[in-house]
Amino acid sequence: MPIRTVALHSRALSRRSFLIMAGSFGVAVALGGLPREASGAAVASAAGGNYRPNAWVTIAADGTVTIMSPASEMGQGIMTTLPLLIAEEMDADWDRIRIVQAPSDAATYGNPGFYGIQLTGGSESTRGYYDLLRLTGAQTRKIILASAAGILDVPVSELATEPGRVLHGPSGRSLGYGEVAAAGEFPDPLPQATEADLKSRDRWRYIGRRDIPRVDVPSKVDGTATYGIDVQLPGLLYGAVLRAPVQGERPETIDDAQARAVPGVTHIVPLPYGVGIIGETVEATHRAKDLLHVTWSTSSRVRNYTSGQLLEHYRDVARDLSQPGVNAFSEGDAETAIAAAATVIEADYMSDLVYHATMEPMNATARVTGDTVEIWAPTQGPTGTQRFAAEVAGTTPEKVKVNTMLLGGGFGRKAEADFIVDAVSLAKEVEGRPVKVIWSREDDVRHDKFRPLEAQHIQVGLDAQGNIVGWRHRIVADSIFARTMPDLFASQGGHDDVVTEGAHFNYAVPAHRIDYIRQDNGLDIGFWFAVGVGYTRFGIECVIDEIAASRGTDPLQLRLELLKDQPRARNVIETVARMADWSRPRDGRALGVAYSDAFGSHCAQIAEISLDRQTGAIRVHKVWCAVDPGVAIQPRHIEGMMIVGITNGTSHALFEQINIVDGEVQEGNFDTYRVIRMSEAPEIEVAVVPTSGSPVGGMGQAGLPPVGPAIANAVARLTGGVRLRHYPFLPERVLAALNA
């Protein structure tokens, strides 16, 4: 169940009085008090020992420290980052650390940033868990010290720690953490940890270091890593599902004679939304799927969905100020200010539907035995997986065990549950045997939960000196929340703050209004890499450049002017300007700049492009990026995430689009859904510039939003003002803009 990205974690609590103990902010940390039959027992078994000061840490007699990783690892390095926080504060020896994926147990391992459920997304993992895990590590250290004091028969105040050892200065004696695990007893009562117990930055051993490798990389290099699609179990069967070509239709007649004749096929299963096949091999199930003859219903509203026509309609709605929307944000009277302005700049921006394109297509393995279910899946949302699996199996969530496997890409798609429902639905038919459902690439493309089709209309009023006096931003799109969280959508008066995410900026404008106008045309749309920020910042950052052009002002300097009270923002912009040598003329090329403060991180990028005026093809040669994550837990890994975001952002800005005609998706694989090639990827240079004393920001998606507008702004500078306003910048669209 996708949940909106909101800051409801420990940053909102009193940092001085915050205690880590059972039930803090809805997450049962249960230090020392976790029942043995709960998830902590699995940790002890995994570590081979039973010294378990809390649900997160187990220390074996040989000194091995096992730390639970609560988030889904999908290439972003979170399986290293989060356990590192605990290891830092407990003074563990990183060379003796073992990381284990946490089980599905939201009461213990839920993310405070997502209402305490287990969900990885929204660049919220580090932000949500940061305080919790550091305090967990600090309290673990205090428990170890208290246990060691009992063994050595000395006051706790005389003890100190270094990685993996407890030191008693007066006597020169020391104990390894393994020795404490073998002989120590938990103190009663358990000591509590507050912010005062956390290490100061000058004492950090691991946070901020560049040389700590990611724990998931070795197995990915040598091929031993187990992704969801790799799961193998005794008695495993395979499954496939034929879905309707138009979303929302159901099978009315099924001719499965040819499908049943395929060797290895064991079951044909009618489903409310399609037809399932179970067989002994992947090849058999997919061959049988191709031989099914199904008559589908014709009642779905999606049959009226043609994306090109709808986008034009969305643009008209955005322009029509008489059509009201939900007020998403308002500060000052933007309408009056714009009406009285000396100059008004108006612009429309649009973006097409976009496919997630994870390298690992949707898949899941399920086994149903009586009223219990076990799932092995590359899921971003174990809590949602439990709930949906329970509904399908007719049981309760606590009887569903979810094994979260490595994800071959997620981008929000694997927070959905449709592939989980497939596996559980088919596993019910062969009780006691596991069934692995693997979607074909064509299934994956045509039945994705796309990033929404959207149009924006931006009005900016300027006074006689060119200063901004009012800014109005209208966003027209369908809602993700209306499908995934209808109660929340209703409670917010019909506002979807993921669809409009990023429209609320930190530029200094005296009057600012954001309106959301929902268009409901029946198509399921979903969370995509950077979701709303990916297109709202496209419109905002391009309009900033238009304002600069109207004033005859350098666009980089205008941003600095509008961010005069934002030192972190100014720093990343000034840093990236130095990196790119912004003022140096380029022969046949141009630079464009864009900035974002999304996900609690400040990111500025400059793109260098060239343009083939005969074909309309844009080439992005290099992108410079400066990012301030607040706290740079792993700087080298942050650089990697920026490279991923910039590459993905360049791909979606230049190439990626899904076209739907009369409800049917026209693309089916990478031959028709265009993504960036390695030969087309720009050179990327990243500077990580953390700010001491700032809160930790989200990194997973922060690199994507600025790159598209930076490319568009570079094209405008190269062509003397030709504006690209429609994602993606297909060559024919570029030529049309050049010839307009």
List the helices and strands and how they pair.
Blueprint lengths: L38 H9 L9 E3 L5 E5 L8 H13 L6 E5 L4 H4 L15 H28 L6 E4 L2 E4 L4 E4 H7 L33 H6 L14 E7 L7 E5 L1 H4 L4 E7 L2 E6 L2 H10 L1 E4 L10 H13 L6 E6 L2 H6 L3 E9 L11 E7 L2 E6 L4 H12 L6 E5 L13 H10 L7 E4 L2 H6 L7 E9 L5 E10 L3 H4 L1 H6 L20 E7 L14 H19 L3 H8 L4 H14 L9 E7 L5 E10 L6 E11 L6 H20 L5 E2 L2 E2 L17 E6 L18 H13 L6 E2 L3 H9 L1
Parallel strand pairs: 2-3, 7-17, 13-27, 15-16, 19-20, 23-26
Antiparallel strand pairs: 1-2, 4-5, 5-6, 7-10, 8-11, 9-10, 12-20, 13-18, 14-15, 14-17, 18-19, 21-22, 22-23, 24-25
Structural overview:
The chain is an alpha+beta fold. It folds into three domains: 10-218, Aldehyde Oxidoreductase, domain 4; 229-299 and 362-438, Aldehyde Oxidoreductase, domain 4; 307-353 and 451-739, 2-Layer Sandwich (Aldehyde Oxidoreductase, domain 4), CATH 3.30.365.10. The chain is built from 21 helices and 27 strands. The strands form seven sheets. The chain has a seven-stranded mixed sheet with strand order 9-10-7-17-14-15-16, sandwiched between helices. Strand 18 and strand 19 form a beta hairpin. The chain is globular and about 80 Å long. The two termini are 45 Å apart. Residues 222-300 form the Aldehyde oxidase/xanthine dehydrogenase a/b hammerhead domain. Pfam families: MoCoBD_1 (PF02738), MoCoBD_2 (PF20256). This is Xanthine dehydrogenase family protein molybdopterin-binding subunit.
